[in-house]
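Researcher:
Attend to token order:
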Amino acid sequence: MNIDIIGDIHGCFPEFKQLTKKMGYTWETGIPLHPSGRILGFVGDLTDRGPNSLQVIEVVHELVINQKLAKYAPGNHCNKLYRYFSGNKVQVSHGLETTVAEYETLSIREQKKIRKKFMELYERSPLYQHLDEGRLIIAHAGIRRDYIGQYGNKVKTFVLYGDINGSKHPDGSPIRKDWAGSYEGNAWIVYGHTPVPHARKVNRTYNIDTGCVFGGKLTAIRYPEMELQDVPSSMPYLAEKFRTSFD
């Protein structure tokens, strides 16, 4: 399997396009296609905070659902947008407000189309991707070794939000334990969720959320080569959004 896995895009469509082009994908048909048949993977959080969330949805839906040329694992922002589109009562905050603002500029007909596409993408994708005969896992916030192959509520919470127990930092953000530090599995786990200044390799795990929407960069990892590629963000840099300590 030859797959290029992209970190949290968060509506940063120009960087997504630039990164795929850097890796040899062409966009002549309106979606990124690789001449040697490589496919794309996504760690989730396609939308929110950035300026072009709906464009990202359009392209990823086409790749995953219609062309079968990509693998997608939903993130916590994807889960929240799905609940919003389902009519559930969710807080339109923490980035969702930017996607909703884009959505509300559309005609009713266009709203129905993009809503249907996103809900189909979400519903037809597994909680995490178990690929290459178990040698590669794409999970939004990661996954514990003993959770691999399971799909219950505990696993869902872990995959979407990380290793949390309800405790919070003084600023209100959740305290996430560093599960990767104790991971001893043989499968490579590629994930995102927690913005880091540079892609972080610990044991056989890679965090490739390098905070594009916070002014960092958009990062991809090429499998099986395990080579990193990135492009700089066009967004303002917000240093406080990046995690640098994992004690």
